[in-house]
Structure prediction request, 315 residues.
Amino acid sequence: MTRVAILVNQQPAMFELGCALELFALPRQEYSHWYRTEVVTFHPSPLTGLGSISLQVVQTDNLQAYDMLVVPAWSVAPSELPDMLKEELQALAHRGGRMISFCSGAFLLADCGVLDQRPACTHWRYQAQFRERFPDIELLDQVLYSFDGRIGCSAGSAAGLDLGLEVIRQDYGQQVANQVARRLVISPHRSGGQSQFVETPMPELHSHFSATLDWASACLNQPIDVDDMARQAKMSRRNFDRRFRLATNMSPKEWLNRQRVERARALLELSDWRSLEWVADQCGFASALNLRLNFQKYMTVSPSEYREQFAERAR
Prediction:
């Protein structure tokens, strides 16, 4: 069972805290070995949040009891952190603990040296301040979140849900992450590489364009391509490509391949007796080789390695 500490400061950010609680603290009896989570602070409690809300949380002076730390938000103003807080975050990182931050929480991880030699992201409104204070940290300015399996940052408040779902996906698999997303009534997966914002909103639900995305998602096991999607949307290929990129910040081909990889993830988790050729056929990839190439590109591991990792978690 993973022991999780949600770390708050003297003025907790209520929305980000709520996201962290929903992801990791809400009891889920349907899953064995779910996270065991506490909200902690290094400051005297109670704390005061927005709207004069008073919070009584666990006051601590160490993080030794925890395997994972979630920082929902933190002050972006330069300030002297308590040595004890810095030392505890560094100790958790040194012993291989996981740390993720939402929105401005990246400032705390950076202040404590946790993000050294790692990519990071934060909300777009704080990017200039982050670069000024931490010029040696690689800041990714056009992503929803960054996560290497141990250390992660989300760009904004709601993107913390996407990062949290990725953590759950890596711990419990695609099916459980999708179920958690369904309970949250949000998209099962927005990849970290998506833009923080796009130039135009997604089309209305009943337009030919959005209906085409639904159609393509339902036909991933068939050899459809971008030309087929454009015809389904009743658009020229050029217009379809342009509108698709404006709406999603990616090409139709990339979107189609990502959807197929997501389908492959679920099949690899639920059908460990099936061949990769069968998985590739069910996802619309022409061959097991094509599946391997795309899976490696978007997941950074091979399908076989991913299946083995999930099998180990399942055991």
About this structure: The first strand starts at residue 3 and ends at 7. The radius of gyration is 21 Å. Residues 192-206 have pLDDT under 50 and may be disordered. The first helix runs from residue 14 to 24.
